[in-house]
Amino acid sequence: MTNSSSGTRRRPPRRPAALLLAAALAAPLASGCGSTGPGTAATGEQRASAPATRPAVDQASVAATAKATDAFGLDLLHTLTAKPDTAGQNLVVSPSGLSTVLAMLLPGARGATAEELAKALHTDLDPKQYALAVGALDRPVPATDGLTLRRSDQVWAQQGFAVKPDYLATLATAFDAGVRTTDFGKDPNGSREAVNSAVEKATEGQIKDLFAPNTINADTRLVLTDALYLKAKWASAFKPGQTADRPFHKLDGSAPAVPSMSQAGEFKYADGSGGIVGEPWQAVELPYQGGGLAMDLIVPAQGGFAAFTKGLDQPQLDRILGALAERPVDLQLPRFHFDTSNELSSALRSLGVHSVFDRADLGGIAEQPPLAVSTVVQKATVQVDEEGTVAAAGSGVGVGVAAAPAPDRPVQLHIDRPFLFLIRDTATGRPLFLGQVADPGAS
User: Fold this and answer.
1) Of the chain's two ends, which shows fewer C-beta atoms within 10 Å, N or C?
2) Is-contact 260 332, C-beta < 8 A?
3) Are 231 and 206 in contact (CB under 8 A)?
4) Cβ pair 13, 57 in contact under 8 A
């Protein structure tokens, strides 16, 4: 189903997400019927069995899961920027998106596969409880004229493929995920187009062709989808007339002129040197209309970006965000708009997730054949301008056969050097998007 913060509340809290899971099995195709759906594949629709009322979720578990997503997101950021050729590039990922799709996979994992996934996700909860906690974090943000937050969760299954009812019930309970049937065997490309079309529609056209040709094939049996679209206006918009070209000092030493927005006002602000991370930094929080979401900007001192980013972990990020306090700020912020596409299998391997790719135990999904994850991908986009932010993300997992006191005067924060950004739910702290801007002029 699809949810929007601007519509009627249709399900209890769960965290905004953006992800897609493709499970490819080598069992003989089962026959089935369906009706014409998105793309060219024939699809049908049914409901997974879910209780009339959702089980209560312990709030301590929900809070711990929000912090775990922070830690998981920072792990991804460190891994993806560890190579010299990527350290100076723009990057945006959706920690909540990837953690959601792995939360959808985890209840079907067993043994070492489940243990490695849980460790990477920084959780010690039972897989079903973790799924419920992730679902509870995806709560609707109070509706305003300046905020749209939509998400859609579905299960795509091969016609006649025997997915365990308990597994589907967990997904229905935690994520309110409906089930669509399609025939990957007879029309894999049409099925791929149907899945991609659903993600594209759910993200207002921002995420296209999530699954590339041949990534969904005749052996595919199960696809789980979750997509996120955000359009939010600043609580205090920047005036276009105050935007001007200003130098931005890149990591390579160059300083091209880029369009930079400007305003002075009261914002939550903090700064420090040493102590929290060891490198000087400044941080500011820009709330969106409605007050439920905000963008946090963390700006290391010139020359300290790499060391700061490498040393930042979840407790340190928590302390930085906890230090934010209202004060006058003279702010300059470059406009930026870019997309990121990543194959994340190697990143997850570096975080200790190995058996899911090699000797996976996914017996909680289906009895046969033995399965293994073949690919993990994510696409995300973010656009920041004078009015606010548009951001979206989609991700995929393919599974196949296993082979200090404020002064009176305003503080100055002119963001003219690489910086980190975080779009988060201010009530739970759970990050929707996390990234770095190394070159705001790049697309």
Assistant:
1) C
2) yes
3) no
4) no
- Tell me the residue range of the domain where 371 lies: 14-32+93-230+338-401
| Across 66-78, average pLDDT | 95
Q: What is the pLDDT of residues 142-176, one digit of tens each?
A: 667 899 888 777 778 878 778 888 988 998 899 88
Residues 188 and 332 grouped into a single domain = no
* Angle subtended at Cα 390 by Cα 84 and Cα 378, rounded to the nearest 5 degrees: 45
> Nearest to residue 54, comparing CAs of 103, 10, 4, 109?
10
- Say yes or no to pLDDT of 213 above 80: yes
Rg (CA), the chain: 22
Judge contact between 139 and 11, C-beta under 8 A: no
113 and 154 within one domain: yes
CA 112-311-341 angle, to 5 degrees, is 65
Which residues on adjacent β-strands are paired with residue 326?
268
Say if residue 53 is exposed, middle or buried (CB neighbours under 10 Å; 0-12, 13-18, 19+).
exposed
Q: What are phi and psi of 339, to 5 degrees?
A: -120, 155
Residue 52 domain flag:
no
Q: Rounded to 5 degrees, what are φ and ψ at 138?
A: -90, 55
Strands 147-158 and 178-182: parallel
What's the burial of 424, exposed, middle or buried (CB within 10 Å: 0-12/13-18/19+)?
buried
pLDDT band at 178 (very low <50, low <70, confident <90, very high): confident
Work out the average pLDDT over 355-376.
81
Tokens at 225, concatenated: 């989808």
- Please give the single-letter amino acid code of residue 429: G
Residues 97 and 202 in one domain: yes
Residue 134: which of 180, 178, 173 has the closest Cα? 173
